[in-house]
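Put briefly, the fold is written as integer tokens. One such record reads:
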Amino acid sequence: MTARTLHPDAPRPGHASPWGAIQHVAPLVDGVVFVSTASHRGAWLSPEAQARIPEAIRPMHGRTWFEEDCEIWAVLLVFGVHDAENSRSRAVEALAHWKPDWLDAIAPLAGCVNAAQVRRIRDLHESYATDVRPDIDAWRRGSVNGAVEGWVGEVWFTVSAAGEAVG
């Protein structure tokens, strides 16, 4: 794994954040830094990294900080930062729950399901595969207008961008 260097303008320990003085800094990808304070954590994005965030979720002058509970999932999806604890499926599900409009803005860019599709996939699993938790990331973009396709139990479904299912 390549060591990451901090962006020249990135916050450092002792600098201020929206959550207080920064105690720890960890670069995630170029221009994205994860910070920890005594009470909270989040990500800082350089201006270059901010430009990669979909415009629909950027305030007029950019979004420099993303907090750890709900907003960080957008950063993880856009920049492809995933591990066993913070999987792509978990990021999609968290955004579908906390920030569905953000997920809808990110889905085409990240090649993942949107919020309506997450709701339908969960409903299908409750009906057809009650003993299995859906792997949201296993659903792939189809060839028709933002539809996604995947298995629920032993049935292959296509779910439209509006969340309509065809089995």
Notes: The radius of gyration is 18 Å. The chain has a mean pLDDT of 89. Strands lie at 16-17, 20-29, 32-37, 41-45, 65-67, 140-141, 148-152, 155-159, 165-166.
